[in-house]
Each structure stands twice: as structure tokens, then as C-alpha cells.
Amino acid sequence: MAGMERTLLVVDDDRRWLRAAQRTLRSTAFTVLVAETADETRQLASQAPQLAIVDVYFAGEPLGFGMVRELRTRVPGIKIALCSAMLMDAPAVCADADLVVTKPFSLPKLIARLEALPARPVTPLADLRTLKDAERDHVRQVLARCGGNVSGAARVLGMTRTGLQHKLKKLKLR
Question: Of 29, 32, 114, 124, which residue is 20 to 30 A from 171 by alpha carbon distance?
């Protein structure tokens, strides 16, 4: 990233911690953006930061998980650290974050760890299947396994035969 402007988004509802983070990072090569709310986070995501540090809890609610997922969608390729003052022992819950850390931590060391991570592969939106396509494929697969028997496929899918017939018409499978 030599020569490119680098941007770091720090998301936390603790205003004093955010100010301390800004002071600590003032001498780095990053433009530091700070957000205290989900709305501010969405607004600042439009600036396409390369890195983000997101707190888990906002006013006692674990809203950080949703913010991580939203950042992933809005800023493909962003590297995200999820942090909390409480120990998190469920990495599966934090699967969208690249790093999970417990406060207190060294901001410069955390940023170095984030930058050292390999880039996640980015799936172009055009390559993603629609829900309708996935539903059509699933219904088609169940029908095939039931030998084309609509009543049997309806039982497997947990719906009525009439409901499945309407679905087949809607999905243009009949």
C-alpha cells in the first residue's frame, strides 16, 4: 500500500476511548475515522477504509457483530478486528472478524497484526446466486430425489401438494 492513502475506522460507543485512540494514532500513516453509532459507521464505510476496529457492545447490547457483517458487505476486502472488554471464547460467533481481541490492547500492535493478515478473497456480487435461484435448485433437487412425485416432494419440503404446485408454477419449473 505504499503511496496509497490508508484509512482506519474505529467504532466504539466510548467517546473517551475514541479520543484516546485518535491521539495514539495521530502519528501513524492512517487517516483515522471514528464512529460511535451504527449510522455513523454506515456513513463512514462509504470512505472504504482498509482496516476497522469494532467494539462488540454498544449500550450493553452486542451490536458489534452486526456492524462487522455490514462492513464486510459494504467494504469488500476490509480487515476487521472485533474487540471487547469481556473475554470472548466463541470464535465461531465472530467468524466475520479477522481478529478477535480483548481490551486493553496496544493499538499500534493490533494494526500491525491486521495489516499482516492475508487478504480475504472477495466474491464479486455478480457471482452470487439469488435466493430465487437457490430455492429453484433446491426444489428441483428434491423433486428429482422423489422421482418427480409432487406429493412426495411436498412431504419432504414440509408443504402441501397444492402449495408445492403453486411454487413450481412461480419458479417456472412446471
Answer: 124
